[in-house]
Design goal:
The protein is of the alpha+beta class. β5 and β6 form a beta hairpin.
């Protein structure tokens, strides 16, 4: 690599060392606030916040690295344009395609890093995140629940709400429980409730409801069935009853490659298409970086952010189609990247011609 190539590659890479850590810092704050809210609600132990935030950052790199690199290319090459260094390159006989080759090489390196993230790091981080969240459920303590919050069990078929806690007895006051079983919805409204531990320490135990009113709603029967009980015992889900199960986001890539399920095919194509997307976004930064001297190197940031948002979100539409079996694996998730490649080719094709470059070179010499 020549001195010029290293100079251009350095100008492209330096902003990435600023933008990417800044984006990671903002994402870490947002994620920490979300987890701390669960800690305040009693749904998550405080010592699990930091590992979950770090794992979230490893997963978020799939999103933040391409946008950080794309902006880095636009800002780095934009500075060369606004400082007339690009005009100096043209005056010395350096063609724009040589600059483009440097951008392509750096983009390829970023794409290889993205491939490692999406194919290996992201599934590993998701698997560990699911495990930590499942352990938090297993270590769940009923005494940590706070009034005024809705609590959903891991299987998602039961919701608990209570309005207050009696300061003397510690019992929950004005309790609401909704349970969905098949097509039947059971609603329990109780004046008081308290947690009764099971004999087995690993079991979740029971919730004893005092002066409870039970309402059963089922499509198979007319009206609402109502039952009044002085004491109603509700069995809680044990942690072992809700295993982690199969999570395609945490499945190894080789396992997805052997699967014929449409959802697994969509996940595999997503992992493979993201490095290609990162490579193309780096190339897109080359034509978008053209700026006049008075525009400034940040003039095209808005257009860059919009371009990234459009093409990144465009991947979700075919992903949903493939998951539901509406679209086959071909074209699958490949056509958004094909559209992006055609856009890049069109923008580069319309770059300033040799006559304009010679005029710029004569003006620079003058």
């Amino acid at each position: 690599m020549s001195t010029l190539d290293r100079y251009v590659a350095g100008d492209i890479s330096k902003p990435l060392l600023i933008f990417c850590p800044a984006l990671l810092f903002l994402f870490a704050n947002f994620t920490a606030i979300r987890y701390l809210d669960r800690v305040a609600s009693g749904l998550l132990p405080a010592d699990a916040v930091l590992p979950l935030v770090l794992l979230g950052l490893a997963i978020a790199l799939e999103i933040l690295l391409p946008i950080g690199f794309h902006i880095s290319v636009v800002v780095g090459l934009g500075r060369l344009h606004t400082d007339s260094e690009m005009t100096a390159f043209f005056a010395c006989g350096i063609s724009p395609m040589r600059i483009f080759r440097v951008v392509a090489v750096v983009s390829l390196l970023v794409a290889l890093l993205m491939a490692c993230l999406t194919l290996y790091v992201r599934p590993w981080a998701n698997g560990l995140r699911y495990l930590l969240e499942h352990q938090a459920i297993a270590e769940f303590n009923f005494a940590d629940l706070k009034p005024g919050h809705f609590y959903e069990n891991p299987s998602g078929n039961r919701v608990l709400f209570f309005q207050a806690i009696d300061p003397d007895s510690g019992r929950m006051q004005r309790v609401f429980i909704q349970t969905i079983s098949d097509e039947t919805v059971t609603i329990v409204s109780a004046d008081e409730a308290f947690h009764q531990p099971a004999d087995d320490p690993s079991a979740a135990g029971f919730l004893v409801c005092i002066r409870a009113r039970t309402y059963d709603l089922s499509p198979s029967q007319d009206g609402i069935s109502q039952t009044v009980s002085p004491e109603l015992v509700v069995k809680l889900d044990d942690p072992d009853d809700t295993p982690i199960g199969y999570k395609r986001k945490a499945a190894p890539t080789w396992q997805l490659a052997r699967s014929l399920a449409s959802s697994d095919i969509a996940e595999l194509q997503w992992r493979v298409s993201m490095p290609v997307f990162a490579f193309l976004m780096g190339l897109l930064g080359f034509p978008l970086s053209r700026a006049r001297p008075r525009e400034g190197k940040y003039a095209k940031l808005f257009m860059s952010a919009v371009s990234y948002a459009v093409f990144y979100n465009l991947h979700f539409l075919p992903k949903t189609w493939v998951e539901k079996g509406v679209v086959k694996s071909i074209p699958g998730l490949w056509w958004p990247n094909l559209l992006l490649a055609l856009l890049i080719a069109g923008l580069i094709w319309n770059r300033p011609g040799p006559a304009q470059q010679k005029t710029a070179a004569r003006l620079f010499r003058a």
